[in-house]
Write a structure and sequence with these properties.
The complex is a heterodimer of chains A (361) and B (298).
Chain A lengths: L6 H17 L10 H16 L18 H13 L8 H14 L2 H12 L5 E4 L15 E5 L2 E12 L6 E7 L8 E7 L4 E5 L8 E12 L3 E2 L5 H13 L6 H14 L5 H24 L8 H23 L7 H11 L7 H12 L5
Parallel strand pairs in A: 1-4
Antiparallel strand pairs in A: 2-3, 3-7, 4-5, 5-8, 6-7
Helix pairs in contact in A: 1-3, 3-7, 4-5, 4-6, 7-8, 7-9, 8-9, 9-10, 9-11
Chain B lengths: L6 H14 L12 H6 L18 H13 L6 H7 L10 E5 L2 E3 L6 E4 L4 E2 L2 E5 L9 E6 L4 E2 L4 H33 L1 E2 L2 E2 L4 H29 L6 H27 L10 H13 L4 H13 L2
Parallel strand pairs in B: 1-3
Antiparallel strand pairs in B: 1-2, 2-6, 3-4, 4-7, 5-6, 8-9
The chains are: A alpha+beta (361), B alpha+beta (298).
Chain lengths: 361, 298
């Protein structure tokens, strides 16, 4: 057991750090405004030009075939540099792993390269008004027609959908509950999008209305009816390693320590605890990269979402009444969503209890 | 970078587990001592030329977790970490910290960690938190004899070894609570089917899952020449392991209900071990303060 990086890994870290130091833009407008969305897309294209937007992907799709450790190194440097949040996040971290596993070569060729350059930006379409934590209760349908499918129904809380070009989600094609669901990719061009203002007033997510929207057969990911199994592979990515690398929490914790430098010891205690917890998450991830992502990612999801919330709540306590003038407030609002999205922490605790500990349903 | 245990490290732990399973009596402070001695466990950290195995602390961390899992009583960690300092042939060691030495009555060597030095002592028993770890108030009754080696390293290893045991205690408390929740029926269902119970146990699993890597890092740091901040790592490990074990103990008691509160169920040995080990070599609260001072300056 050791925590030593190889010379090649150290060289990769240095390259990433140097490139970011030279290229990271000053603060961009919120990605949930039209202007900010486009600025974030332009940033993704610059990353892609340096082959840094999707380092863990194979070369043919714009990556470098980086190892999991190298990907973690990239993430540490990315967040430490103060680089912008990733507008392509839902695509590159959630859909892409599913495309690599279940997509046909022509689907991979059609979507991955464009996604890596943020030419296409993907929104997820899981939740429905009556299917949130109980995702299997969803009722949006895909009806078979010649050459494709007609989509009907309503999806909601679709992150990035206000400005994104594409979406992915589950539609019922037969059966009930987990059976007979189909994983469908779609262009947002033909979908009625109703942006929904979030707590900060910007349309970070949207409602999607499908009124017989046609998608060709080539837009079905995997076999029709196998959508639940395929989607679970994606949500496990969302809860686990791929969406929430330790680097971002470590960077936040280190900024928090700087913010608390002259604070009362009672507040410094909370900051020091956050730093240790961020380090624990990092170490845990280093230990886990060799293993399979499974139900244990639920433990990580509860841990990082509560850590992120504690860190930003402490920043609010440190900053006082004018906290909203700092980026900490935007971070605080976002951290409040952490225990809700990607499967609420209550659902995660059920998964831990039932699938990790073996308690009865 | 390989932050996983090697097959040798895990095999050593499996051998310890095999010895302790069904045999370790948590009420007998010398239980299984002979068997673990024969396995080379207590001499694991001593150099090979002194009859030891020449291992590093990280090599024995999984085995130490097993001694915690079994609630093995007595001066297990102390004897293990003092082996590189002690003359050959010493069976049990007690460490003297701020006037208190655990299990001093069983030790043929008492080491004052500020030396380190061997000290002749007059021990007076104090009321124990844990029947498996008996504290003694100690009066030094003769000339201390300086031992070779670093006092700093001895205390760090004792602290991390104790943290590793706490992780093991917490894992066993969780396993027993899960087992009880699967079998105890109320309202016509196993109590483990209720979310109020499930979520408490899930929180214990999370606390243990994220405390253990801090203990593993600290074990690496104490034996590494150029570790940047070994004391901070040690304190983070002890604090997190102590808090995880404390949560595991409180939850175990709550899940077991009244039967857990009795002297009739042996759960009490594991509960008490979280108290004694939690207090040994600095409480979680003390180590949290040390971490804060290391991060921000005293």
């Amino acid at each position: 057991m050791d925590l030593d990086f190889t010379p090649a890994e150290q060289a990769f870290r240095a390259e990433v750090r140097d490139w970011l130091a030279a290229h990271v833009p000053s603060r961009l407008p919120s990605m949930d405004t039209r202007e900010g969305f486009e600025a974030h897309r332009a940033w993704e294209a610059r990353l892609a030009d340096a082959r840094l937007s999707v380092v863990s992907w194979p070369e043919e799709h714009g990556g470098r075939s980086a190892s999991p450790i190298e990907w973690l190194i990239f993430e540490e440097e990315y967040w430490a540099s103060g680089a912008p949040a990733r507008v392509s996040q839902n695509g590159i971290f959630l859909l892409a792993p599913t495309l690599f596993t279940f997509g046909t070569p022509s689907q991979q060729a059609a979507f991955l390269g464009r996604m890596a350059r943020a030419e296409d930006v993907w929104a997820q379409a899981w939740s429905e008004p009556e299917a949130g934590s109980d995702l299997a209760a969803l009722s949006s349908r895909a009806v078979k027609v010649e050459g494709g499918w007609l989509l009907h129904g309503r999806k909601t809380w679709s992150s990035r959908a206000a400005f994104a070009s594409h979406g992915f989600g589950l539609f019922r094609t037969s059966g009930s509950r987990h059976h007979g669901l189909t994983y469908v990719l779609f262009s947002l061009e033909d979908v009625a999008v109703r942006p929904i203002a979030q707590l900060d007033g910007t349309p970070g997510f949207a409602e999607l209305l499908f009124d017989g929207v046609f998608v060709p057969d080539a837009m079905v990911l995997g076999e029709p009816g196998q959508g639940w199994k395929i989607a679970m592979a994606t949500t496990s990515s969302e809860r686990g390693l791929t969406l929430r690398s330790p680097g971002r929490f470590l960077a936040t914790a280190e900024r928090l320590v700087a913010l608390a430098r002259t604070a009362d010891p009672a507040l410094q205690d909370r900051a020091a605890r956050c730093l240790v917890d961020a380090e624990a998450y990092r170490l845990h991830t280093f230990g886990a990269v060799k293993g399979e992502l499974g139900a244990t990612t639920s433990m990580g999801k509860v841990f990082w979402s509560e850590l992120d919330l504690r860190m930003h709540a402490l920043a609010m306590d440190l900053l006082g009444p004018c906290a909203a003038e700092t980026p900490w407030f935007d971070g605080y609002l976002f951290s409040l969503a952490g225990p809700i999205y990607a499967g609420t922490n209550e659902i995660q605790r059920n998964i831990i209890a039932e699938r990790v500990l073996g308690l009865p349903r | 970078m390989n932050f996983s245990f090697t097959s040798e490290q895990l095999a050593f732990a499996a051998a310890v587990r095999e010895v302790l399973r069904d045999r370790c009596d948590p009420a007998d402070r010398v239980s299984c001592w002979k068997e673990l001695t024969e396995l080379g466990f207590f001499a694991a950290l001593a150099p090979e030329e002194a009859g030891g195995l020449g291992l590093s602390l990280i090599d024995v961390v999984p085995a130490l977790e097993e001694t915690g899992r079994a609630a093995m009583p007595g001066p297990v960690v102390e004897t293990l970490v003092a082996a590189p300092y002690a003359p050959q042939g010493v069976t049990r060691v007690s460490l003297l910290v701020e006037g208190v030495a655990l299990d001093a009555d069983l030790a043929d060597l008492v080491v004052d960690v500020t030396g380190p030095s061997a000290v002749p002592v007059r021990p007076e028993p104090r009321r124990a938190l844990d029947p498996g770890r008996q504290p003694y108030g100690v009066t030094v009754a003769g000339e201390p004899e300086r031992l070779p080696g670093s006092a700093e390293a001895l205390l760090r290893r004792a602290t991390v070894g104790t943290a590793a045991q706490l992780v093991g205690v917490a894992r066993q408390l969780l396993a027993r609570s899960v087992e009880y929740a699967r079998t105890r029926t109320q309202f016509g269902r196993p109590i483990g089917a209720f979310q109020a119970v499930k979520h408490q146990l899930a929180d214990v699993a999370i606390a243990v899952e994220f405390a253990a890597p801090l203990v593993h890092r600290a074990a690496l740091s104490v034996d590494e020449q150029d570790a940047p901040r070994p004391d901070r790592d040690v304190s983070a490990a002890k604090a997190a392991a102590g808090e995880a074990a404390s949560l595991a103990a409180r939850t175990a008691l709550q899940v077991h209900g009244a039967i857990g509160y009795t002297g009739e169920l042996d759960l009490r040995f594991w509960l008490a071990r979280t108290w004694s080990l939690g207090a040994a070599y600095g409480t979680s609260a003390e180590h949290r303060i040390r971490v804060r001072e290391a991060v921000f300056g005293a």
